[in-house]
Amino acid sequence: MRDVTSSPDHRSKSRRLSAAGVGLAFALGMRCASPQPPAGPRDREAAPRRPTTGETAGTAGAADATAPGQAAKPLPPAAPVLPGPALAAREAAQRRVLGEAPFGAAYFDAPQRLEIAPDQPAAPDAAEPTGDAADVTPPAALPIDALTLGRFVPLQGAGDPALSAFHHALGELASGQRDGKVRVAFYGSSQTSADFITGYLRTYLQRRFGDGGHGFVALAKPWRTYRHLDVGLNTSKGWHTDHAQKSDRREDGYYGLLGASTSARRRGRRTSIRARGAAVGTRFELQFLQQPRGGSFILDVNGRRQAQIKTRAKEHGPGYYAFELEPGLHELRVRVKGDGEVRLFGVVIENDEPGVVVDTLGINGARVANQLTWDEALWADAFRRRSPSLFVLAYGGNECTDTDVPMSVYTAELEQVLQRYRRVAPESSCLLMGPGDFPEETPDGGRQPRARLREIVRTQDRVAARYGCAFWDTQAFMGGEMGMTRWVEASPTMAQADHLHLTRRGYTRLGMALADAMMQGYDAAGREPGPRAAID
Questions:
Q1: Residue 291 phi/psi, 5° resolution?
Q2: Of 50, 162, 313, 428, which one's alpha carbon is 20 to 30 angstroms from that of 290?
Q3: pLDDT tens digits for 358-369?
């Protein structure tokens, strides 16, 4: 058991960000590189055309390829090549999130359109219907089969090479050359915080490369609906949450790795976290704020007192308390002593064995620019401590509603966030995950494409390429503009009625396609000899 605290240089003032709050999520990850100058007109003309609305990644550009007088252009891959370990991992990950594997192990084909039943054959001499024929009811629309939704979309932006550091680390795990962890830091909004996309990725990658543990979890619930697949939280009343989207937040930026803190002063305030169903790790590290006039808290493990931890310090800075336990189902409980404010960030849960760890770092209603309000020194200390091989930024849905923010401002803020990551983790792979389709409501109650979403997708793709990051187009995966309507109408339903959030089944489908895109280059290279470890 060890008590680790640091560091004195964490007093930089946070920036103020005014942003209207609405909920959604977005993601990013890949290898960061030095910014490249914007492409000139000739470079832009030579770039491959992005899929347009209604095209699959495998058909985009097909019309151009067959145009008279033009040489045929190679088509993007219709689907990735999946080795045996990948197929087994896809099925295991579905079962972890859904309790079943409705989409199977094999890759899904391009979606079929099933809304309209087959036409009835007309009589040979049929003209205009007469008599009873005029009263025939048209065939009813068939429900949209959920199994037909979703299409493979390859990585764009800087493309698959942007994930080379991540793929190299996975290759070392698979071959037994690496005895540590390969970590993924997955930032985003509500779609990330639900832990369905990340839960799928966690199971999928751990099935293939080893179980490194669950990863980061908030120690106290930062909002009522906060949850993780493999752990449960029970938090008493009396805790206050601070993050950039809260109107009553403290603007000191001391929000930690997640970008959200929870605090309490009164004696008896408590919170607990426990494994749900199966063991999630043997190594634990509590993360909290050290500060002048900071209070103390008592840590109980499995009902027995483990330690009393003081958070008082001369200056604001990160605090850590790490310890190890035997394998098993464990419960941690924090009790506030009442001698000052205790401000918690979370707990990291890992195993002693090599493997993959996926940190779920989503905040409801978040925008990517919220990260600019975080105290950089405090956040950077925690981020470097995690040392992720890949970071993902999954934002954009909420920004679609910020029509009062010029796109030039959005672009500048996105670049500033990426510059932070370059300073802190220049060797990490980086991926930006675009927003899903989000049609806006019309005055008559219908739906129409959201123009700002189109601009955000293009901006993310362009900025990702400039900073050496990959970009994954979630909207294209969903079928392009207005594709969300099919997800809402599908049976079983794949998206919620707000036309923004998916269902658990929909998020699982998204996780499948994202994982396949992330691993396409790795699998195509044939570097994996087989699964390192399996999970039940």
A1: -160, 155
A2: 428
A3: 999 999 999 999
